Amino acid sequence: MEKIKIAIIGLGNCASSLIQGIHYYKNKNSEDAIGLMHWDIGGFKPEDIEVVAAFDIDKRKVGKDVSEAIFAKPNCTTVFCPEIEKTGVKVSMGKVLDGVAPHMENYDDNYTFLISDEEECDIVDVIKKSGAEILINYLPVGSQKAVEFYAQCALDAGVAFINSMPVFIVSNDDWARKFEEKGIPIVGDDIKAQIGATITHRTLANLFRERGVKLERTYQLNTGGNTDFLNMLNRDRLDSKKESKTEAVQSVLAERLEDSDIHIGPSDYVPWQKDNKLCFLRMEGKTFGDVPMNIELRLSVEDSPNSGGCVIDAIRCCKLALERGIGGQLTSISAYTMKHPPEQIKDEKAYEMVNEFIKGKRER
Prior knowledge:
The protein is of the alpha/beta class and 364 residues long. Helices cover 33% and strands 20% of the residues.
Protein backbone atom coordinates (compact mmCIF):
# COMPACT_ATOMS: atom_id res chain seq x y z
CA MET A 1 0.00 0.00 0.00
CA GLU A 2 1.34 3.44 -0.84
CA LYS A 3 1.99 5.84 2.03
CA ILE A 4 -0.25 8.76 2.95
CA LYS A 5 2.24 11.61 3.11
CA ILE A 6 1.42 14.30 5.66
CA ALA A 7 2.93 17.56 6.85
CA ILE A 8 2.26 18.80 10.39
CA ILE A 9 2.07 22.35 11.74
CA GLY A 10 3.00 22.32 15.44
CA LEU A 11 4.92 19.40 16.97
CA GLY A 12 3.12 19.62 20.31
CA ASN A 13 1.37 17.01 22.42
CA CYS A 14 -1.30 16.18 19.82
CA ALA A 15 1.27 15.65 17.08
CA SER A 16 3.34 13.56 19.49
CA SER A 17 0.38 11.28 20.21
CA LEU A 18 -0.50 10.96 16.53
CA ILE A 19 3.04 10.03 15.50
CA GLN A 20 3.47 7.65 18.41
CA GLY A 21 0.19 6.02 17.38
CA ILE A 22 1.29 5.55 13.77
CA HIS A 23 4.28 3.53 15.06
CA TYR A 24 2.44 1.85 17.93
CA TYR A 25 -0.09 0.16 15.64
CA LYS A 26 2.51 -1.17 13.19
CA ASN A 27 2.72 -4.51 14.97
CA LYS A 28 -0.99 -4.81 15.69
CA ASN A 29 -3.88 -6.42 13.87
CA SER A 30 -7.59 -5.68 13.80
CA GLU A 31 -8.23 -7.92 16.82
CA ASP A 32 -5.73 -6.32 19.22
CA ALA A 33 -5.70 -2.73 17.93
CA ILE A 34 -7.26 -1.09 20.99
CA GLY A 35 -8.24 2.57 20.67
CA LEU A 36 -9.09 2.82 16.98
CA MET A 37 -12.53 3.65 15.64
CA HIS A 38 -11.58 2.19 12.24
CA TRP A 39 -8.70 -0.23 11.71
CA ASP A 40 -8.93 -0.15 7.92
CA ILE A 41 -10.18 2.79 5.86
CA GLY A 42 -10.18 2.15 2.14
CA GLY A 43 -7.28 -0.27 2.55
CA PHE A 44 -5.23 2.23 4.58
CA LYS A 45 -4.10 1.27 8.09
CA PRO A 46 -2.43 3.59 10.63
CA GLU A 47 1.06 2.46 9.62
CA ASP A 48 0.41 3.69 6.07
CA ILE A 49 0.68 7.31 7.26
CA GLU A 50 4.10 8.94 6.88
CA VAL A 51 5.22 12.34 8.17
CA VAL A 52 7.29 13.97 5.42
CA ALA A 53 7.41 17.58 6.70
CA ALA A 54 6.90 19.36 10.02
CA PHE A 55 6.86 22.97 11.19
CA ASP A 56 7.35 24.46 14.65
CA ILE A 57 8.74 27.64 16.24
CA ASP A 58 10.29 26.26 19.46
CA LYS A 59 14.10 26.17 19.53
CA ARG A 60 14.03 22.77 21.25
CA LYS A 61 12.30 21.29 18.19
CA VAL A 62 13.38 23.27 15.12
CA GLY A 63 16.18 21.45 13.31
CA LYS A 64 15.60 18.21 15.18
CA ASP A 65 14.44 14.96 13.64
CA VAL A 66 10.67 14.56 14.06
CA SER A 67 11.29 11.42 16.17
CA GLU A 68 13.16 13.57 18.73
CA ALA A 69 11.08 16.74 18.51
CA ILE A 70 7.84 15.03 19.57
CA PHE A 71 9.40 14.25 22.97
CA ALA A 72 10.98 17.68 23.53
CA LYS A 73 9.74 20.25 26.06
CA PRO A 74 7.22 21.65 26.60
CA ASN A 75 5.49 18.42 25.46
CA CYS A 76 4.17 16.52 28.44
CA THR A 77 1.78 13.90 27.11
CA THR A 78 1.99 10.19 27.92
CA VAL A 79 4.75 8.35 26.09
CA PHE A 80 3.18 5.07 25.01
CA CYS A 81 5.60 4.34 22.15
CA PRO A 82 9.08 5.50 23.17
CA GLU A 83 11.06 3.62 20.53
CA ILE A 84 10.64 5.53 17.28
CA GLU A 85 13.29 5.26 14.58
CA LYS A 86 14.71 8.44 13.07
CA THR A 87 12.50 9.66 10.25
CA GLY A 88 15.09 11.69 8.37
CA VAL A 89 12.63 14.59 8.47
CA LYS A 90 13.90 17.73 10.19
CA VAL A 91 11.49 20.18 11.82
CA SER A 92 11.44 23.42 9.82
CA MET A 93 11.07 26.88 11.32
CA GLY A 94 7.50 28.04 10.80
CA LYS A 95 5.86 31.46 10.93
CA VAL A 96 5.00 32.82 14.38
CA LEU A 97 2.46 35.61 13.75
CA ASP A 98 -0.10 35.29 16.60
CA GLY A 99 0.79 31.64 17.30
CA VAL A 100 2.40 32.51 20.65
CA ALA A 101 0.40 34.51 23.20
CA PRO A 102 2.43 37.27 24.95
CA HIS A 103 1.66 35.96 28.45
CA MET A 104 3.46 32.67 27.68
CA GLU A 105 6.84 34.34 28.24
CA ASN A 106 6.04 34.77 31.94
CA TYR A 107 6.22 31.03 32.67
CA ASP A 108 8.96 28.50 33.33
CA ASP A 109 10.76 27.23 30.22
CA ASN A 110 9.54 23.68 30.88
CA TYR A 111 5.93 24.77 30.39
CA THR A 112 6.03 27.43 27.68
CA PHE A 113 7.30 28.08 24.16
CA LEU A 114 10.85 29.29 23.48
CA ILE A 115 10.90 30.94 20.07
CA SER A 116 13.78 29.84 17.86
CA ASP A 117 16.02 32.45 16.23
CA GLU A 118 16.26 30.32 13.09
CA GLU A 119 15.17 31.98 9.88
CA GLU A 120 11.62 31.20 8.80
CA CYS A 121 11.55 28.65 5.98
CA ASP A 122 9.68 28.93 2.69
CA ILE A 123 6.72 26.88 3.90
CA VAL A 124 5.05 26.31 0.54
CA ASP A 125 8.37 25.23 -0.98
CA VAL A 126 9.04 22.78 1.88
CA ILE A 127 5.57 21.27 1.51
CA LYS A 128 5.95 20.86 -2.24
CA LYS A 129 9.43 19.35 -2.07
CA SER A 130 8.39 16.92 0.68
CA GLY A 131 5.69 15.37 -1.48
CA ALA A 132 3.09 15.92 1.23
CA GLU A 133 -0.55 15.40 0.24
CA ILE A 134 -2.21 16.61 3.45
CA LEU A 135 -1.34 19.48 5.82
CA ILE A 136 -2.51 19.08 9.43
CA ASN A 137 -2.89 22.12 11.66
CA TYR A 138 -2.16 21.80 15.39
CA LEU A 139 -1.56 25.47 16.21
CA PRO A 140 -2.55 26.91 19.63
CA VAL A 141 -6.07 28.22 20.27
CA GLY A 142 -6.45 31.85 19.21
CA SER A 143 -3.90 31.75 16.37
CA GLN A 144 -6.24 33.40 13.87
CA LYS A 145 -3.63 35.01 11.62
CA ALA A 146 -1.29 32.03 11.73
CA VAL A 147 -4.01 29.53 10.84
CA GLU A 148 -5.21 31.66 7.93
CA PHE A 149 -1.60 31.94 6.73
CA TYR A 150 -1.12 28.15 6.77
CA ALA A 151 -4.51 27.57 5.13
CA GLN A 152 -3.33 29.77 2.28
CA CYS A 153 -0.07 27.78 2.20
CA ALA A 154 -2.13 24.61 1.71
CA LEU A 155 -3.96 26.27 -1.19
CA ASP A 156 -0.71 27.51 -2.73
CA ALA A 157 0.94 24.10 -2.35
CA GLY A 158 -2.15 22.29 -3.63
CA VAL A 159 -2.49 19.98 -0.61
CA ALA A 160 -5.49 18.92 1.49
CA PHE A 161 -5.99 20.67 4.84
CA ILE A 162 -7.13 19.21 8.17
CA ASN A 163 -7.83 21.92 10.72
CA SER A 164 -7.68 20.42 14.19
CA MET A 165 -8.16 23.64 16.16
CA PRO A 166 -10.87 26.30 16.53
CA VAL A 167 -10.11 28.93 13.95
CA PHE A 168 -12.93 28.54 11.46
CA ILE A 169 -11.60 27.63 8.02
CA VAL A 170 -13.54 24.58 6.87
CA SER A 171 -16.78 25.96 8.35
CA ASN A 172 -16.15 29.40 6.80
CA ASP A 173 -17.91 29.80 3.44
CA ASP A 174 -15.23 32.02 1.91
CA TRP A 175 -12.36 29.69 2.79
CA ALA A 176 -14.35 26.60 1.85
CA ARG A 177 -15.07 28.10 -1.56
CA LYS A 178 -11.37 28.61 -2.21
CA PHE A 179 -10.60 24.96 -1.57
CA GLU A 180 -13.66 23.84 -3.55
CA GLU A 181 -12.56 25.87 -6.57
CA LYS A 182 -9.11 24.27 -6.48
CA GLY A 183 -10.52 20.77 -5.99
CA ILE A 184 -8.72 20.35 -2.65
CA PRO A 185 -10.46 18.44 0.21
CA ILE A 186 -10.66 19.98 3.68
CA VAL A 187 -11.67 18.58 7.09
CA GLY A 188 -12.43 20.69 10.19
CA ASP A 189 -12.80 22.58 12.43
CA ASP A 190 -11.56 21.79 15.99
CA ILE A 191 -10.88 18.11 16.66
CA LYS A 192 -13.11 16.11 19.01
CA ALA A 193 -11.73 13.53 21.39
CA GLN A 194 -12.76 9.89 21.16
CA ILE A 195 -14.27 10.05 24.64
CA GLY A 196 -13.81 13.63 25.81
CA ALA A 197 -15.75 16.48 27.35
CA THR A 198 -17.59 17.54 24.19
CA ILE A 199 -18.63 14.11 22.92
CA THR A 200 -19.76 13.08 26.43
CA HIS A 201 -21.73 16.31 26.86
CA ARG A 202 -23.35 15.87 23.43
CA THR A 203 -24.27 12.26 24.18
CA LEU A 204 -25.91 13.15 27.49
CA ALA A 205 -27.71 16.13 25.95
CA ASN A 206 -29.04 13.88 23.20
CA LEU A 207 -30.12 11.32 25.84
CA PHE A 208 -32.08 14.04 27.68
CA ARG A 209 -33.84 14.97 24.45
CA GLU A 210 -34.66 11.40 23.43
CA ARG A 211 -35.98 10.53 26.91
CA GLY A 212 -38.21 13.59 27.13
CA VAL A 213 -36.18 15.39 29.81
CA LYS A 214 -36.14 19.17 29.50
CA LEU A 215 -32.58 20.46 29.92
CA GLU A 216 -32.74 23.82 31.67
CA ARG A 217 -29.11 24.67 32.34
CA THR A 218 -25.68 23.14 32.07
CA TYR A 219 -21.99 23.83 32.49
CA GLN A 220 -18.77 22.17 31.43
CA LEU A 221 -15.57 23.23 33.21
CA ASN A 222 -12.18 21.88 32.20
CA THR A 223 -8.73 22.03 33.76
CA GLY A 224 -5.38 20.79 32.48
CA GLY A 225 -1.64 21.37 32.65
CA ASN A 226 -0.44 21.30 29.05
CA THR A 227 0.51 24.28 26.85
CA ASP A 228 -3.03 24.39 25.47
CA PHE A 229 -4.45 25.25 28.89
CA LEU A 230 -1.58 27.66 29.62
CA ASN A 231 -2.20 29.40 26.31
CA MET A 232 -5.92 29.69 27.09
CA LEU A 233 -5.30 31.69 30.27
CA ASN A 234 -5.46 34.60 27.85
CA ARG A 235 -9.24 34.87 27.62
CA ASP A 236 -8.97 37.12 24.56
CA ARG A 237 -7.95 34.04 22.55
CA LEU A 238 -10.99 31.98 23.50
CA ASP A 239 -13.90 33.34 21.46
CA SER A 240 -13.76 30.71 18.72
CA LYS A 241 -12.97 27.92 21.20
CA LYS A 242 -16.01 28.70 23.33
CA GLU A 243 -18.20 29.04 20.24
CA SER A 244 -16.96 25.70 18.89
CA LYS A 245 -17.54 23.75 22.10
CA THR A 246 -20.84 25.46 22.93
CA GLU A 247 -22.32 25.01 19.46
CA ALA A 248 -21.37 21.31 19.49
CA VAL A 249 -23.74 20.87 22.47
CA GLN A 250 -26.43 23.37 21.47
CA SER A 251 -26.81 21.65 18.11
CA VAL A 252 -28.18 18.43 19.63
CA LEU A 253 -30.69 20.05 22.00
CA ALA A 254 -34.44 20.03 21.37
CA GLU A 255 -34.45 23.76 22.17
CA ARG A 256 -31.41 26.01 22.30
CA LEU A 257 -30.56 27.27 25.77
CA GLU A 258 -30.19 30.95 26.55
CA ASP A 259 -26.58 32.08 26.82
CA SER A 260 -27.04 32.59 30.56
CA ASP A 261 -28.06 28.93 31.01
CA ILE A 262 -25.11 27.27 29.27
CA HIS A 263 -21.43 27.71 30.10
CA ILE A 264 -18.83 25.62 28.29
CA GLY A 265 -15.15 26.34 28.19
CA PRO A 266 -11.72 26.08 29.78
CA SER A 267 -11.61 26.88 33.46
CA ASP A 268 -8.01 26.91 34.64
CA TYR A 269 -4.41 25.83 34.20
CA VAL A 270 -3.01 23.35 36.74
CA PRO A 271 0.65 22.60 35.84
CA TRP A 272 0.94 19.28 37.69
CA GLN A 273 -1.95 17.84 35.67
CA LYS A 274 0.31 17.94 32.58
CA ASP A 275 -1.63 16.45 29.64
CA ASN A 276 -4.36 15.06 31.88
CA LYS A 277 -7.65 16.89 31.41
CA LEU A 278 -10.35 16.98 34.03
CA CYS A 279 -13.90 17.81 32.97
CA PHE A 280 -16.55 18.79 35.52
CA LEU A 281 -19.98 18.62 33.95
CA ARG A 282 -23.38 19.44 35.39
CA MET A 283 -26.79 19.18 33.72
CA GLU A 284 -30.06 20.26 35.33
CA GLY A 285 -33.46 19.40 33.95
CA LYS A 286 -37.01 18.28 34.62
CA THR A 287 -38.57 14.87 34.12
CA PHE A 288 -42.14 13.52 34.29
CA GLY A 289 -44.44 15.86 36.21
CA ASP A 290 -41.88 18.71 36.06
CA VAL A 291 -39.88 16.93 38.77
CA PRO A 292 -36.29 18.29 38.94
CA MET A 293 -33.22 16.11 38.34
CA ASN A 294 -29.53 16.71 37.75
CA ILE A 295 -26.38 14.91 36.68
CA GLU A 296 -22.86 15.71 37.85
CA LEU A 297 -19.96 14.00 36.12
CA ARG A 298 -16.19 14.06 36.48
CA LEU A 299 -14.21 12.87 33.47
CA SER A 300 -10.43 12.33 33.50
CA VAL A 301 -8.62 11.70 30.20
CA GLU A 302 -5.14 12.07 28.72
CA ASP A 303 -5.99 14.91 26.38
CA SER A 304 -3.73 14.43 23.35
CA PRO A 305 -3.98 10.65 22.73
CA ASN A 306 -7.74 11.16 23.02
CA SER A 307 -7.66 13.26 19.84
CA GLY A 308 -5.32 10.92 17.99
CA GLY A 309 -8.00 8.34 17.25
CA CYS A 310 -10.09 10.98 15.47
CA VAL A 311 -7.25 12.57 13.48
CA ILE A 312 -5.99 9.21 12.24
CA ASP A 313 -9.46 8.59 10.73
CA ALA A 314 -9.64 12.12 9.29
CA ILE A 315 -6.29 11.65 7.53
CA ARG A 316 -7.32 8.40 5.88
CA CYS A 317 -10.73 9.72 4.79
CA CYS A 318 -8.97 12.78 3.36
CA LYS A 319 -6.73 10.45 1.36
CA LEU A 320 -9.78 8.69 -0.07
CA ALA A 321 -11.14 12.07 -1.16
CA LEU A 322 -7.85 12.84 -2.90
CA GLU A 323 -7.96 9.51 -4.70
CA ARG A 324 -11.55 10.13 -5.77
CA GLY A 325 -10.91 13.69 -6.95
CA ILE A 326 -13.25 15.24 -4.36
CA GLY A 327 -12.57 18.86 -3.35
CA GLY A 328 -14.01 21.17 -0.69
CA GLN A 329 -15.67 20.32 2.61
CA LEU A 330 -15.80 16.65 3.57
CA THR A 331 -19.12 16.73 5.43
CA SER A 332 -19.25 13.26 6.97
CA ILE A 333 -15.77 12.95 8.49
CA SER A 334 -15.89 16.59 9.62
CA ALA A 335 -19.16 16.03 11.47
CA TYR A 336 -17.83 12.81 12.98
CA THR A 337 -14.44 14.08 14.17
CA MET A 338 -14.80 17.85 14.61
CA LYS A 339 -16.58 20.12 17.11
CA HIS A 340 -17.38 22.88 14.61
CA PRO A 341 -17.93 21.16 11.24
CA PRO A 342 -19.62 22.83 8.26
CA GLU A 343 -22.79 20.92 9.19
CA GLN A 344 -23.64 19.69 12.69
CA ILE A 345 -24.95 16.11 12.50
CA LYS A 346 -25.91 13.77 15.34
CA ASP A 347 -22.98 11.52 16.19
CA GLU A 348 -24.64 8.21 15.40
CA LYS A 349 -25.77 9.55 12.00
CA ALA A 350 -22.32 10.99 11.29
CA TYR A 351 -20.80 7.58 12.05
CA GLU A 352 -23.11 5.97 9.49
CA MET A 353 -22.26 8.64 6.95
CA VAL A 354 -18.51 8.10 7.42
CA ASN A 355 -18.92 4.36 6.83
CA GLU A 356 -20.93 5.10 3.68
CA PHE A 357 -18.21 7.49 2.51
CA ILE A 358 -15.51 4.87 3.12
CA LYS A 359 -17.49 2.36 1.03
CA GLY A 360 -17.98 4.93 -1.73
CA LYS A 361 -21.75 5.13 -1.21
CA ARG A 362 -21.69 8.90 -0.61
CA GLU A 363 -19.49 11.59 -2.13
CA ARG A 364 -18.63 13.53 1.00
